[in-house]
């Protein structure tokens, strides 16, 4: 029996739902590209100021994914508020054409839109594409951009955490930096991704362990190095027992410094590593006004804020920081069976997912029907790399069977 492509209903997603920003668009596109379910998104980024619609960074992701999975695009352009994305279901739609280009992908932007949000949009598709050889993705844009994961966060937190849940190691190399602060500049990063060859097994992030190491990464004007190091040493020492417990010799602390080559570029990331290999991170790309000669408060303000933020992540006892929980939703949804991600407690209350995470969970439910519980559990669909999830295979088979029966009915009447 020749395979048939049964037209499927377009899934409508209202873009103002929950967070109502770009995260909704990225997750929706990733899941639609993989499952081949067409989507229509209205009021895109409808909760953002400035009129909403697709920004360059989102447009780039739509266009790249559309090309990769051979999708029909409707309404797609800069500032578009409504798009329809219709991946092909036939043989053509199964071709991941990147292989034809020797596994080399180049994505260029002319503004420092976040490289890592494009990476976030396309990573699930590449990982689950079923491609046998590694894919090198070089993306031009911003490496350090406000309200998005920095290169450092991806390298120090996201990539190790993905390895922990069973994703093949991803290599990340920054060639040059692109900043949204100071004078804007373009940078570029290469990610080398080994796609999954089998389903991603369900994963359990439930054992936080004790903190064994804390790392500080500073990128700032060279003349601020000593000030940062001194402030971090003093403030860290005061809080040491909150990191390592009573036995403070159980952990160590180190600092790296890089010159940002600009008087208005200050970045600080703190990463805590635990005895079970968990990484928790918090950072700040300084985004307040900087006046010449008035810089003395910047370092203490940054150090205090980022230390307090990382301590709050450590003290809830969970296995993910706020941002990591956002990023893991799509992997829980696609994994094979029930995964758990412990988010910890504050007092008697479980730490609730961020609005970004709730949005991602909502999109995953709308497109592939998965549900997340209060404790961070989700039974994923068991998406087979290069193909459909178990449930969808059954659904597609049933649809084929139903349409075959209809054909038989017609011909026999
Ligand atoms: N400091 C940070 N570290 C790591 N990840 C971050 C950080 N700040 C934001 N993120 C992540 O970046 C993403 C931001 O999504 P969001 O929809 O707000 O951005 P966007 O696409 O730029 O859209 P919009 O302009 O509509 O806000 C989320 O996945 C969030 O977890």
TrEMBL record:
Keyword check for ATP-binding: yes
Key words, A-Z: ATP-binding, Nucleotide-binding
GO BP: RNA processing
SUPFAM superfamilies in the cross-refs: EPT/RTPC-like
Tagged with keyword Nucleotide-binding: yes
UniProt xrefs under InterPro entries: RNA3'_phos_cyclase_dom, RNA3'_phos_cyclase_dom_sf, RNA3'_term_phos_cyc, RNA3'P_cycl/enolpyr_Trfase_a/b, RPTC_insert
Residues that hold ATP according to the record: 120, 323-327
Active site: 356 (tele-amp-histidine intermediate)
Residues of the RNA 3'-terminal phosphate cyclase domain: 18-372
Coiled-coil region(s): none
A Gene Ontology cellular-component term: nucleus
Signal sequence coordinates: none
Recorded GO MF terms: ATP binding; RNA-3'-phosphate cyclase activity
Protein name, UniProt field: RNA 3'-terminal phosphate cyclase domain-containing protein
């Amino acid at each position: 029996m020749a395979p048939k492509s049964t037209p499927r209903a377009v899934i409508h997603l209202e873009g103002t739902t929950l967070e109502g920003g770009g995260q909704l668009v990225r997750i929706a596109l990733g899941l639609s590209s993989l499952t081949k379910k067409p989507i229509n998104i209205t009021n895109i980024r409808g909760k953002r100021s400035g009129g909403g619609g697709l920004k360059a960074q989102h447009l780039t992701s739509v266009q790249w994914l559309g090309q990769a999975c051979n999708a029909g695009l409707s309404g797609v352009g800069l500032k578009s508020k409504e798009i329809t994305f219709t991946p092909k279901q036939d043989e053509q739609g199964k071709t991941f054409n990147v292989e034809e280009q020797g596994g080399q992908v180049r994505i260029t932007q002319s503004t420092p839109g976040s490289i890592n949000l494009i990476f976030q949009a396309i990573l699930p598709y590449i990982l689950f594409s079923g491609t046998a050889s590694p894919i090198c993705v070089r993306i031009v844009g911003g490496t350090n951009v406000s309200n998005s994961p920095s290169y450092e966060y991806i390298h120090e937190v996201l990539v190790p955490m993905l390895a922990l849940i069973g994703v093949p190691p991803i290599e990340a190399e920054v060639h040059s930096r692109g900043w949204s602060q100071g004078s804007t500049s373009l940078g570029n990063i290469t990610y080398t991704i080994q796609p999954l060859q089998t389903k991603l097994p369900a994963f359990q992030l439930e054992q936080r362990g004790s903190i064994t190491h804390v790392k500080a990464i500073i990128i700032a004007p060279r003349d601020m190095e000593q000030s940062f190091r001194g402030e971090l040493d003093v403030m860290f020492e005061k809080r040491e027992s909150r990191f390592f417990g009573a036995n403070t010799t159980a952990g160590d602390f180190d600092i790296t410094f890089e010159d940002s080559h600009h008087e208005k570029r200050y970045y600080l990331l703190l990463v805590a590593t635990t005895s079970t290999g968990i990484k928790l991170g918090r950072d700040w790309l300084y985004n307040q006004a900087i006046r010449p000669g008035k810089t003395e408060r910047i370092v203490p303000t940054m150090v205090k804020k980022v230390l307090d933020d990382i301590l709050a992540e450590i003290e809830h006892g969970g296995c993910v920081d706020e941002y990591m929980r956002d990023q893991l939703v799509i992997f829980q949804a696609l994994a094979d069976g029930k995964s758990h991600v412990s988010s910890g407690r504050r007092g008697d209350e479980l730490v609730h997912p961020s609005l970004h995470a709730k949005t991602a969970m909502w999109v995953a439910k709308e497109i592939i029907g998965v549900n997340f519980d209060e404790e961070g559990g989700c039974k994923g669909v068991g998406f087979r790399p290069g193909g459909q999830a178990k449930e969808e295979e059954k659904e597609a088979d049933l649809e084929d069977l139903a349409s075959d029966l209809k054909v038989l009915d017609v011909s026999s009447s």
